[in-house]
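ok so I'm stuck.
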Amino acid sequence: MTNLPSFSEIRNQFENYLLKSILVETLGFPLLQEMIFYHFGWQEPKRKTGKRLRPMLTLLSAELQTEDISIAYPAAAAIEILHNFTLVHDDIEDNSDTRHGQQTLWKKYGVAQAINTGDYMSSLALAMISHSGSNRPELMMSTFLESSSEVTKGQHEDIKFEKLKTISEQEYLRMIGRKTASLFSASMKLGAISAGADEQIIDKLGEIGHQFGIAYQIYDDYLGIWGDPSKTGKPAGNDLIEHKKSYPILLGMQLDSSFGEIISSDKQFTPAEITKSIRLLESLGMKGRIVDEVNKRLAVGKTELDTLKETSGLDTTRLIDYLYSLFNLVKSFD
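replied:
not stuck anymore, here's the structure
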């Protein structure tokens, strides 16, 4: 393949497709359209959209088979709309006031309308998949429905864990496997299905997506403690402030019972206590352990992609480059 579009060009072209699709689907319902545009970051004059990383995975997986990645637009749109449906409902369930520097949908428009808009987005995602034009509609639909079910089960477990004093490492990894990694896996599989890949390639891309999805969530957990506020948009130690049982925190709880008691309580952290807790996690080796876990999973995923390249003849270079770009701060880990 020659003269392939850049990642930013792919993203921008898809963004236009997604916006126009939702614009058409919501004609005659101005408030519904306004709410979706607001959530997706399309309202002028300050347009600020998300990374669209899941549809990018769909489109780059399709690109392994064909230069005409537009055939995967419906699947990419479906997975992005599904992801955003989960965000709308997550914000309500977590009582979150802000997302991406603006009020969450429920905070701005009320809980009832936010729930209904999320429900509509879920239905719209399903409609996009059902009209994808794939020559394997049953496989397309079953892949999408499985991911939708898994992410909902993952959220169920995440909410349940909030009430538990302790959870095991394996329980947590299974939860993020459902809540986060299942959408990564489905994104890549749907791209391959759209482009007509054989089942062996589809399944392998799904496995690779799952591995990178786990790594991405653990990386996000790292940022929730040690991320640069100017880049994450959240205060330092944000997951401590919110008493989240993220990966480094739950591991720290297992090693220090007094820390575990604080996380499991309703105690509000002072800035000094946040700093002290971060230092405690570092003294327990959590910072290095999390970095090692992310890098281990990245290495496994890259090896699988290299093997796929060797066995199938597919050029996975751009897909590898994009996946690694999601972890661009890994190189600066201490």
